[in-house]
Amino acid sequence: MPLSSGFSPEEEIDKILNSIQDIQRAEVPAFFYTRLEARMKKNLHGVSYGSLLTKPVFSILMLCLLLVLNITVMTRYIRSNEQQVVNNTSDGVQAVAQEFNLTVSSVYNEKTIK
Amino acid sequence: MQKGDPGAFRHVVNTWQHMVYNTVLSIVQDIQEAEDIAQEVFMQIFQSIGSFRGDAKLSTWIYRIAVSRSLDAVRKRKSKKMLANLKSKFGLSDKEESAIHFCHPGVQAENKERSELLFRAMKKLPENQRIAFVLIKLEGLGYAETAEIMKLTIKSVEALMHRAKENLRKELTSYYYGK
């Protein structure tokens, strides 16, 4: 939004660039030292947990920890499931074999049958 | 102060508070944030005064802390703004940050409007150029002292200032012509 000052654009830009030529140094608001002292005393009383929780390092660390925990639980669950499946299938095969009398009978068994 | 004398710390604060505040304010361009950062600068000075060996002037050391703290705040604000923009794109937040016009309290009344435009353009400068411009134009430091604060040679600071002025002119031209 150009300024309506009656100057040519080049002149206006020069004026903008020179607008801080006589600038005064900004001064701190009143009672700056009192507020600073109070903040330092507050900080001396120890780290507040609230501020710790808002720190990105802490949240990233917690996220990583959660991720590792999740992966560990998942792998353990998958492994135990696999083992159960193996056990279940071997048990099932044995049960079917017994039901239909498919177990390998020895020579001695055949003789006694006869 | 290195011996932990609170009176000495008070003296340091009283001596350098306006210098620190003006530098921080000119970089972050936010009055409330500037006071917080200025306080943090003095807290850091209090904590790390033991590491000050006196190789450089005390003012140079304080300027360095003020500049690095201010740049940290600017970076933090940028990343927050990016996150807010991303959120608004995904419809997670309906509030969009509006551009706040900063007016330096030390600017003369007749230059207020123009200086607002200049400060706005300064925000777009690369960090090094912005720091050199603030220290020389707003703090009134010489090239040699600025070079010492920025740990650069005087020629590098001169080059930075030249590029800063060029970039500001470009930015203001594009603003002026509405490009």
Helix/sheet category of chain A:
mainly alpha
Give the percentage of residues in beta strands of chain A: under 5%
Spell out the helices and strands of chain B N to C.
HHHHHHH
Q: Would you tell me the overall average pLDDT of chain A?
A: 80
Percent in helix of chain B? over 70%
Strand-and-helix sequence of chain A, N→C?
Answer: HHHHH
Number of helical segments with 4 or more residues of chain A: 5
Low-confidence stretches of chain B: none
How would you characterize this protein structure?
The complex is a heterodimer of chains A (114) and B (179). Chain A is 68% helix and 0% strand. The relative contact order of chain A is 0.03. Chain B has 2 domains: 96 residues, Rna Polymerase Sigma Factor, Chain: A (Orthogonal Bundle); 79 residues, Winged helix-like DNA-binding domain superfamily/Winged helix DNA-binding domain (Arc Repressor Mutant, subunit A). Helices cover 71% and strands 0% of the residues of chain B. Chain B contains 7 helices and no strands. At the A-B interface, helix 1 and helix 2 of A face helix 1, helix 2, helix 4 and helix 7 of B.
Briefly, what is this?
Chain A is an all-alpha fold and 114 residues long. Chain A has helices spanning 9-17, 32-44, 49-53, 56-99, 107-113.
Sequence-ordered SSE layout with sheet pairings:
The complex is a heterodimer of chains A (114) and B (179).
Chain A: H1 9-17, H2 32-44, H3 49-53, H4 56-99, H5 107-113
Chain B: H1 6-28, H2 31-48, H3 58-89, H4 112-122, H5 127-138, H6 143-150, H7 154-176
Helix pairs in contact in B: 1-2, 1-3, 1-5, 2-3, 3-6, 4-7, 5-6, 5-7, 6-7
